[in-house]
Amino acid sequence: MGPDYKDYEVAIIGSGFGGIGAAIRLRQAGVHDLVILEKADDVGGTWRDNTYPGAACDVPSTLYSFSFEPRTEWSRKFPPQPEILEYLRHCARKYGVRRHIRFGAEVTEARFDEAAGRWRISTTGGPLTARVLISACGQLNRPAWPDIPGRESFRGTSFHSARWDHAAPLDGRRVAVIGTGASAIQFVPELARRAQRLHVFQRSAPYVIDKPDRPYTALDHALMRHVPGWLALQRAITYTLFEARALGFFKNPAILTPAVRRWRRQLESQVADPELRRALTPDYPMGCKRILLSDDYYPALTRPHVELVTDPVERITPDGVVTRDGTTRQVDAIVYGTGFRANDFLAPMKIVGLDGLELNEAWREGAHAHLGITVSGFPNLFLLYGPYTNLGHNSIIYMLESQIRYVVGCVRAMRRAGLTWIDVRPEVAEEFRRRMRRRMRETVWERGCHSWYQDAEGRVVNNWPGFTFAYRNATRRPDPRHFRARR
């Protein structure tokens, strides 16, 4: 294997919230023989990669931190990207995680050696083995580039919002933005302030409601720092308010009626032009796609030098964008706000389990994992933020902590029983998959729209169709009856 080869008890792929949180909890459980494999040169995951102007979280800061490491120094109610990244760096330093990270080590392949009970892992930084492999890659780490003819022919500046080119000359230029998702509604207002002419190409209109953001005052910080229980109370209140919205996603969409009123009130107060207002009106029920928060997106589109284009993009030429009606808009730069390949949970890694089974083959009828964490036929492989674990209503940090506790429970159980490997039983995994499909059909996510929650066949494979506290209860501890094991 070479001089740099090493064997670990646990290998973690990725150093975002999932990877950092898992490493901290494993160390606290007495597991110190671990490594984090990180393809980049810093921690942070999606909060390291997404540095576009205006990047911020749409979950309040009171919920956007680990429960064991609450932060009191946020500058705003909704935390901006640089502060979230610094928080993750802080956690990695404080809890001794950085010493376990191999930077510049992108995983290309992992094969399970049944006889040895080890994952044989190939990385760009060299090979290694580990008894347990934890994928903490997340769902929003691989940019999705649109399949538009001529995209490579464009001679101007072009980049994806998740790989923002801060050196690109955009001030006073003609700029096209393709896509109107969660990232675009944050950076479009920034571009509208800089560009000479801005064309925003919209495939379908999102629901954009007001964002109740504000800077934290000195009094806010004093209360959080010095009043016992204050921050915990604010966290509990925010969690409860957000959790109540879940009923609108998987029980009765009518529960979202107040949010629909908020959206309509904002649209009507900020957009006077009836034609533009019609173009910004979604043709699907609220919640089918991600609900977006912004106070300045609609006003940006009303500026005289900003154009919202709803005619489909037909092709890209060396100097512009052509829509289906034959109109060519000449531009100097194109920014793709086209989201992520959210259904490719472990791509482009090649994952091979028992009997040579590849994960892509196991998922040929859609990605699935028991509790979103384990896949039958892939022993000692655990997924964080895997299938069925995304949310439309609350903080993903809460879900990650539930998953991490479950994974740590599995590792500790293996240690206590002296097990070489454990593998979720196929009948258990299949029953869970069927239950998810049944429940998903009742949700708003399958009511007339196409979103990144769905795979190519239209199956919703990303989201959890229930309350987050129900998920926490389901993952409270691993059930030995769900696994087959080998000593």
UniProtKB/TrEMBL annotation:
<dbReference type="InterPro" id="IPR051209">
    <property type="entry name" value="FAD-bind_Monooxygenase_sf"/>
</dbReference>
<dbReference type="InterPro" id="IPR036188">
    <property type="entry name" value="FAD/NAD-bd_sf"/>
</dbReference>
<dbReference type="Pfam" id="PF13738">
    <property type="entry name" value="Pyr_redox_3"/>
</dbReference>
<protein>
    <submittedName>
        <fullName>Cation diffusion facilitator CzcD-associated flavoprotein CzcO</fullName>
    </submittedName>
</protein>
